[in-house]
Amino acid sequence: RSAPNDLAPYWMPFSANRAFKADPRLFVAADGMYYTTADGRQVLDAMAGLWCVNAGHNQPRIVRAIQDQAARMDYVSSFQMSHPAAFVLAERIANLAPAGLDRVFFTNSGSEAVDTALKIARAYHKVRGDANRVKLIGRAKAYHGMGFGGLSVAGIPRHRRDFGPLLGDVDHLPHTHDLAHNAFSRGQPAWGAHLADELENIVQIHDASTIAAVIVEPVTGSGGVLPPPVGYLERLREICTRHGILLIFDEVITGFGRLGAPFASNALGVTPDMITCAKGMTNGAVPMGGVIASTAVYDAFMTGPEAAVELMHGYTYSGHPLACAAGLATIETYEQEGLFDRGPEICAAWEEAVHQLKGAPQVRDIRNIGLLAAIELESRDGAPGARAGETVNRCFDDGVLVRVAGDNLVLSPPLIITPDQMGQVVDTIRTALGEVA
Ligand code: PMP
Predict the structure, then answer these.
(1) DSSP per-residue codes, 79-101
(2) Does this UniProt record's set of keywords contain Transferase (predicted)?
(3) Is the same domain home to 154 and 258?
């Protein structure tokens, strides 16, 4: 696992938590469900890279589309100009999203998508003459990327601690997750929807006329795969609508098939005012993110006598030709391979597979929704996360790529995973747990 040159100046993404510092794993090729390591081993990818390679690695249609586009036109600005594929991709995405969400703004990452949505939310109220509505509401345990906007609304204290001051005017909803109620539940837990009503308390304390938006991940991802209780998102939607607050779903993980439907908003039947997306949008092949906004949000800026000509937002690489080509080929792949249609069947098989780990050593909880799962382990005294970290290392040595999030093993395989491969993931984890103290 060692790097080719320990003295090389490459500064990798880091955590100051030394317990998680490990030599980088070096990969040199990828195909379908597998990575090839620098030392020639095949590793089954149970994380879809980093929750993004939803149709499997090096999908030929996507590779070809990127190659063709690179040979045709490398770059065009998206300020006052564009290229046809950007329009076609926006339309395809809008057609996948729930009705009413029909405008797509392109970014280059999930973090930029989140910052974009937060900026749009504030500006939306401003252009409507409601300049006091600036407050943003996030949620405990949430991850919304590494920009200052996303960090400010996110709810993982360790990520926020060292980078302040962050945005003021932010409050956080409590999280619904409580192990005592939740252990080994399948899909969405039946309890806890009432915790959405905490939003009503925040509204009463601050006054609705000061609140711009609420942002939540429909399924908390990096915080440990925590599905929303049945009815929770519906209640958030109802409270936001009643008070004129915009609701943003961060679907960077849940978008593009992860829950067996194009978006969690489709799968769970709740339509926000904006969706942020990235990752599976291009199957991980080229960086791209986006905000899918409602007609009402779009119209506030772009139509009517007070069109917001002085507002300014956009990126050099918004709607990059390579990303648009990859995005179009990705959607074609999902549709032609039937990955959305087969979602319910694949997700049901996945649920059966991961719950076979109930009773394995140290397993404290198992959660699943769509093609996501977390195996929560008992925390080792004085060393939270250590057992999960050691288990993930053993799985890697045994040929399966799994990720750690606190005391959880998290799983997010490509949607092309077969029942046999699901079995391999589960067997490898069970063996690793038997070897870790
Ligand atoms: N939001 C969510 C829910 C995410 O999971 C992530 C990335 N894991 C992001 C935002 C940030 O995306 P990126 O790393 O592409 O900036």
Answers:
(1) SS---HHHHHHHHHHHHHSPTTE
(2) yes
(3) yes
